[in-house]
Structures are given as C-alpha cells and as structure tokens.
Amino acid sequence: MKLCLSIEIQEGLSYERTLGLARAAEDAGFDAALLAEHYTSSSGEDDRAASDAWMYLAPLARETERIRLGTLVSPVAFRHPAVLAKMAATLDHLSAGRAELGLGAGWLEAEHVAYGFPFPAAARRVDLLEEQLQVIKGLWTQNPFDHAGAAYRLTGCRFTPRPVQQPHPPLIVGGRPSSTRVLELAARYADEYVISLPSVEECMVVRARLAGRCALSALTNACVGPTTAAVERRLARRTERHRPAMQDTPRWILGTPAQAGGRLRRLRDAGVARLFVAAWDEDHADLPELLQAGSAD
Fold this sequence. Notes:
It is a single chain. This protein is of the alpha/beta class. It has one domain: TIM Barrel (Alpha-Beta Barrel), CATH 3.20.20.30. Helices cover 41% and strands 20% of the residues. It has 10 helices and 13 strands. The strands form 3 sheets. The protein has an 8-stranded parallel β-barrel with strand order 1-2-3-5-8-9-10-13, surrounded by 8 helices. It has a two-stranded antiparallel ribbon with strand order 6-7. Helix 3 (81-94) crosses helix 5, helix 5 packs parallel to helix 6 (181-189) and helix 9 packs across helix 10. The longest helix has 20 residues, at 122-141.
C-alpha cells in the first residue's frame, strides 16, 4: 500500500506551508501529495483562506522532483471539462509526467451556493460526473474528439498539449463506500476509486464490488505523534479547531507510529492500494515521517 497526502489547503494553508507538506511527503517516500479542492473551508470556518488548488499545483510542479501531484477531488460544477482537461495536461508537462486528476460530484452545498455554482440533485451531479469523465478521457486519447451530450458539446477538437503520460494521466473518482453508480463510473472510466473515511470492512466490500476493474484507495484523517502524550495534545487541539470532523474519530489513524502501523496494515490487507491522509495544520508537519515509520514496523 502506497502512502499519500491529501493537503487540505482550504483550511487556511498558505502556499509556503503547502510546499513544506509536499516536500515532507516527498522526503518520506510518499507516492503523491494531492490537493483538496474547495472554495470555502470544509470545516465551516468562514474566515479561513481557501486558495485555488490549481494555482498552487503549478509552482509545486517546479519545486518538487518525484512526488505525484493533482486534486482530490475537483467538483464537477466548478469548470467545463475541457478546461479541466487542459489544466491537468499542462500540469503533466510542468511536472514531467507526475499529474493526476481527481473528479467528484461535489458534496459541499454551501460553497456552491456562496459562489453561484449550480448544485442540482445528487443524481444530476452524477450525470455531470459521467459526462465529464467521457469528455476528459476522450480529449486525452482521441484526436480529433467529438462529443454530443446532455451538458457538453465538442466538435472536431484537436486537443493540445497531449499529456506526457500515455495513454493519459491517472483519473481518480471520489465517492462514498455506499455509492453504487459512482463506483460503476470509476470502474468504467477511471484508474482509481477513492472512498472517504471507510472502515476496514467497508474497504473489503468495495474492493469486492470493483472486482479488479480499477484500484481502490481510501481517504482518512490521522492524529499521530511520537509519544502518547503528544497524541493527546494534538487530539485536543484538533477537537478545538476542527470540531465538525471529530465525529469520525474512530475511523482515524490514531496513536504513536507503532499503533498507526497496525491500522495501516489492516487497510492494506483489506485491499487499499493507496491511502490518502488529510493534512491541514502544523501538527501534520511530521505526519509523513511518522506514518512511514509506522508502516515499516
């Protein structure tokens, strides 16, 4: 199982802090550092700066060497899929073939309402997700590309630049463990299906449903420290700063590196190919090193 960071830049992370986390992950041997994409804080703190993920990704591509970069995930309402395909292909060139693109139907209604993005019913958002996957994959792999769908129409599109990675950069679809149609879209169009805060048992069920058609990944939270006392201090600060997230604490990776290692192994044995661990404040500066130590035990 490969370890990755999901850097939650919408929780007030400056570019400098984001770069520090990406470099820490790279130094620890992590596979990827993908950026969450939200236009407002997902924890409900309206005063936190929520910077644009793609503006951060361009310089990250030049200031890192090995680690893979992209979004986890980009909501379908934010952009036309041709724009997103162009941005990701350009990132692939800037990073010398390290770009990944995560797509999701979007779940944070408040940010859509605040910024004027449409937020239709869930079934309609999944329709848009399917059509965006068709358009993006088509642009990357067919030349010229035509598409006549319910939401998007492209005619004779000769897409440039062609991605560095062939046949295309990895496509990731984000969803819930209980999702049915989103899982099927991932299996049909994507390379990877990432589920949020799953239990070990849910990972096993989803892996069986995917039946090897695409890889299974998981996104989770973590509170890891070098000692039990450090873990307790960090957990207390997390409760104060991010109280809405604490309801899922039993599914987190908690404890010292040795304790974290046990959960990492259970997720690996459940079929998780990549584990994305959310990072959003100074307590996560040493998270890559601590998790790598735990995985090696």
